[in-house]
Amino acid sequence: MALPLIYNFESVRVRWASTVVAVLGIAGSVGVFVAMLALARGFQAALVSSGSEHNAMVRRAGATSEMDSAITLEQLRAIEDSTEVMRGADGPLVSPEVVVVAALPLAKTGTDAMVQLRGVSLKALAVHDKVKIVNGRFFTPGLFELTVGKNAKNAYRGVAVGDEVKLGGTVWKVVGSFDAGGSAFDSEIWLDANLLNATYQRPTGIHQSVAARLAGDDAVGALERRFATDPRMKVRVERETDYYKRASQQMTTFITVLGSLVALVMALGAVFAALNTMYSAVAERSREIATIRALGFGEGAVVLSFVIEALLVALAGGIVGCLAALPLNGLVTQTLNFQTFSHLSFAFRVTPEVVGWGIAFALFMGLVGGLPPAVRAARVPVVVALRDL
Amino acid sequence: MKFLPLLFANLTRRKVRTTLTLGSFAVALFLFCLLVTIRAAFNSGIDAAGADRMLVINKVSLIQPLPIAYREKLQRVPGVQDLTYANWFGGVYQDEKNFFAQFAIDADTYRTVYSEFIVPPDQWQAFLADKQGAVIGKATADRYGFKIGDRVPLKGGGFPGDWEFNVRGIYTARRPSDDLTQFWFRWDYLKEKAPPWFANQVGWYTVRIAPGSDAVKVAKSIDEIFANSAWETRTQTESAFMASFAEQMGNVEFLMIAIGSVVFFTLLLVTGNTMATSVRERTGELAILKTVGFTDASVLALVMIESVLLAAIGGALGIAAGKGFTLLGDPTKGMLVAFYLPASGVAAGAALSLSVGVIAGLLPALTAMRLQVVDALRRL
Amino acid sequence: MVQLGTNGNSHLIAARDVAKTYRRGSEELHVLQGVNLAVDKGEFVAFMGPSGSGKTTLLNLLGGLDVPSAGSITVAGDEISRLSRAKLTAWRARHVGFVFQMYNLIPVLSAFRNIELPLLLSPLSGADRRQHVQTVLKVVGLEGRADHKPRELSGGQQQRVAIARAIVADPTFLLCDEPTGDLDRRSADEILDLLERLVSELGKTILMVTHDPRAAERAHATLHLDKGVLTN
What we know:
By secondary structure, chain B is of the alpha+beta class.
């Protein structure tokens, strides 16, 4: 009952010049869309991957981010003593941490950007097990030493292993760099928490957050309940991954909103290009269409045929657009994370899901751009068109 | 222009195609305006920066405070005409997703230094009289529906607890690049209610230098005074400060240019194709025009003018739509400080549109011009 | 035999008091008025007449491409003058084979695929369709040209492909609108030979509109149309 696909293939092939225009229009739109999604995904992934599903993050109740939280030594002890926390060879796997933002010159421009300094203890490597030393060594507690994340090392000037950095009136030495698997940690510089507190004139012994490895994956709830009944523990307990997902929300939304806006507008342009192409195709082929109708093919068959043709063109455009955006995958870019007020490097992530969305977007454009001309094709009055010399 | 009827007849011959081509132009220019607007938003801090203002921050880190005691010394630095200070509050209004900057300001001096902000005198007086008062920028006030007399609760971030303020004024400003999203309340109230560790701290000072002073020299003098103290300072012009923020946003401008180029070329292709198809279809008629006596040059002009006309009308529509869109306000709901289409953007868009019209029409116009009557009539 | 009277339903094609009127702005054009005709199976009828006499309109009505303003048309017992557009489309596929002056082949498809088109509307399998197409290719003498595109064929060859397409689904009758109008004398004669053979050897029924008296000679009978009225 349907017109053969080869009719559509050959028709598209013969009118390749106009078709290329529509394909490029759609490809451009899909490329931008995929790039934006990849950017947003990449940002989210960098942050979310900082967290581990096996860890819990404890902060002061009501704190909106790490920076305005405070955990006392007493609260730290309580966490260390909890049975829900896993124990390693050296004791409970608990990492108390302090986060501060400092200005360092960017490698590219020399202007200052704000880098996140994380004050930790040796336990940090055990708790954040995705972090691996790749160069030099971890800092020695008690010494003015720095370990630099791999993205921070590339982003800033003068933080290579062996360099000396002036922070807060003291000179620190870079003794190593680490790889944190592309997470936000890679944009940070780690050092001794107590020295950080002293340098920044923060009260001694107060940390901002505590990361703890859970004894079992479902121990989060139990830990929460334990502290709920303890009046000393006005804290918020959540799984690390959940915390980071929330921490990336504002920026992810920002990128997604702006990016979608741009892609949507481009899509409109692409649809116009597709409409133009398909309408002129229908006009050029009006005699052909009339003949097909005369032979006995119904309106539905004609509409379907032209819609399929438009979808074929759109699919081609979608594939070209996705291929064009693919090289972005893994490209490292930087931005300012509003929520932590620090500079963050992250990589574009073109995932299969993102590509899927790109193709779906292309097909949607093809449908919108192909349907009106297809309907017009079907409505060509057979008798009139046959006489149209 | 006696050829206008001929021109319009040609353009309205295939109404759908003309509409779609106009639509393509309009969409492309709308996109261009959108990109220019986003770029302006990112750079608005730089654009709005006072030429005679400098920020004094803690050298170690932006988020470290400075003592209020520095006030006297700063006032006495040669070149310093006016001085004010403020703190970042960082509270949350109802939901973490709602974002607007909150500053604890020194009510007596803030507007002397930041003179671009306009507050009706009676509202400002009310603010001065109410320790818990707040003055809100029009953009934020409109977004959340704050009105004079409302009570606004904020959940403290860096300053924990529940804080409440009374809306006493709404501020506006003249330039589109001015930030109308800020929430001001009083520093003396912050000092009163803050926990003991707060102890007379200031987030940053803003200095307004006397006309004719050398900004670099003044900055150096300031930093020298506090060098080697417990709280060292770093003084830079407001535009330099904003620029370093914009710099951290990274590759935004690059993305813009990339997208812009993609759009431009696609548009060129679409219109070029439309013009070429249109000329091809009208070969017979153009030949007849020539037999009637139209010169080659006039046929060239006819096709070119058509193309440019499409570009002009479509482009105008797109730019108008772009301007209209900015009037709808910030789509990111507060994360962009300003959302406006600068005049330079309009000019650039118009130039872009017209140049595409010319370039796209050129090849078909030349083909039409060179058409040999005999060949064309035979094609009929 | 062709009869002008209104005589029963035993004819293959019968038109009774058929009229067709077109509206142009505020004017009414009476293209056909009170046409009566009957055609039996296996007949070859030619229609001649000056420009504007309504020949093509009559053909369109008989072929179900259009509906009459008045009167009725019956083909193989079916009253087609009042069928809906959708039903008419299906009816056409089953009963009519068209041959046009301008061949009207699909330029992007090969001869084989062009001929196969009507069969796609039937439930025949791919193998069956191929067989039918090969058969009619032989009938029109173009076995070696199955894979050629229309632009690779001469005018006469293209018309033969069109005729093959017209008969491949074994329709009740063929409608030819100036089939030789665009051909040189020699090709025209070849086509007319073919049409004659279809009637004499395969028992097809053909209604043909033509300007060409030599074409009309090949038919069993010629009807004249003048100002919308059949005369003979």
